[in-house]
Amino acid sequence: MPSVSLSTLSFSILILVAYFFSLSAASDDGTKQLLDGINKYRSSLNLSTLIDNNHAACLADEFAEKLKSQPCTNTTGSNTIPGTEEQFAEYPEFLKNCHLNVALTRDSSTLPACVPGLDASLVLSNFTKSQYNDDLNNTGFVSAGISSEGDWIVVVLLKSDVKSDDLDFSRSRNVVIGSIWSAFLALFLSLLVWF
């Protein structure tokens, strides 16, 4: 059996854990990139930038989860005729899950877009060069949350900034559980490599 120093084993585990953490962070890159693009768009119009809002992101995630099984067509997402958007009976439950209430979301705007493969250049134009640009140009919106599932990406705009200190527990819990599993997998793979 080969002799392996504890420092070599620790370093290998550290590298693998860092790799798995980077994989989980990559899924948020598209949403951050879209918020950055929207904020650059708003800045070019001399509008204030939108604050990233965890509660709005939670609500966007609820909508994206419901939409992910729907195919992209020329009548879905940003191509939808205003007033014909799908209504979700679970909306009150979505608000409860995200620690929001009707008063905070009464004047909100939910903007779903379906873009095959979520191509970054097409995603941004689905918001800035569509019926959604009226909402993006609205000076009343101060915060946003974004989430994606499958080919769907959803932006939720709020007119007030719900304090972001109160993180969505279920999201935080999922990140912790995923990180623990990644660490165990990294440890297991390291042991297999060395023994």
From TrEMBL:
Task: Print the keywords alphabetically.
Answer: Membrane, Signal, Transmembrane, Transmembrane helix
* Position of the signal peptide: 1-26
Q: Which InterPro entries match?
A: At5g19230-like, At5g19230_dom, CAP_sf
Q: What name is this protein filed under?
A: Putative GPI-anchored protein
Q: Record's SUPFAM superfamilies?
A: PR-1-like
Q: Fetch the Pfam families from UniProt.
A: At5g19230
Residue ranges annotated for the Uncharacterized GPI-anchored protein At5g19230-like domain, each copy included: 32-157
Task: Please list every transmembrane segment annotated in the UniProt record, as residue ranges.
Answer: 175-194
